[in-house]
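Q: I have 358 residues here and want to know how they pack in 3D. Can you give me a structure?
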Amino acid sequence: MAELGRFAVLLALGAGLWGAVAAAYGARTGRPEAVKSAEGAVKASALCFTAAAAVLFYLLLTKDFRVEYVAEYSSRSLSTFYALAAFWAGQAGSLLLWGWVLSLFSVVVVYQNRAKNRAIMPYVLLTLSVVVAFFGFLVAFTSSPFRTLAVVPFDGQGLNPLLQNPGQWVHPVTLYLGYVGFTVPFAFCIGALASGRLDDEWLRSVRKWTLWSWVLLTAGIVLGARWAYVELGWGGYWAWDPVENASLLPWLTGTAFLHSVIVQERKGMLKVWNAGLAVTTFALSLFGTFLTRSGVISSVHAFAQSSLGPYLIAATAAAVLAGGALIVWRLPELRSREAIESPISREASFLANNLLLV
């Protein structure tokens, strides 16, 4: 079964790479069949990631201690409820969760835009496929939950007692759904900038994605705060753990983005600001993942020193550089023809609110 899971991840990586290549070709040539091929690759990647996730759930459920990940985060005495929640208890499993959720979100994006946004969809698919392939690469080659042990232990180490709380089923999942959800506004922002379609259509297309990502991230933070007090019983939520500060960062910029899009839709202003916030929020989501997986900080949430740090910080930098370069390129077209009329106007108050959040 472990080999099946490993093979499914490799297929997901391959599908993500093919989706990126096909989408780039479709964007360059305008050939609709290439875009259709990229959409098919997105669906294939989601299917493969789902298969890999199902295999890991099965290995945890059957307590197969031949698999290193199962031996590290499960044990014979661990209940089924927490054995399944061990899926995202470790570094490798949580990275698989990132890729799996994003691949499913990408399929929803393809379905929602099958008859609209066709001019920017090649770039949207290219962006989503690159991110899916990136996490497929991390799971396949740097932190795989399907590695097997040469010597099989009689029992596993079990789940950390701090994680044996109902919050293990809700806090990490909602937090990840929020993190991953912000990839969609980022992809549409890149699509709008790359294609030159800089009207408000891309904002309207991602309004619900942004709102639901914000709601889920908010729920994850609040549930995590409650869990911190119940389980640890010391310190304020943001006073003791830098990882929780990291989860707050994309929430702040995401909140600013939700507010400022209203100004663009009503007045055609703050286009540069909104594009910058979409890029920044996604980059901060990657940065939060970097903090917990690189070993650069000591935290209840952080994992041991690993080789993932350089990859994640490079991905964060690449997102900022790519988004920033496109914004600079389109700057003449993004500039608003209207100015804020008064420092006490509604637009000025929105801008002040944004500056405060950022």
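Q: Anything worth noting?
A: DSSP finds 15 helices and no strands in the chain. The mean pLDDT is 87.
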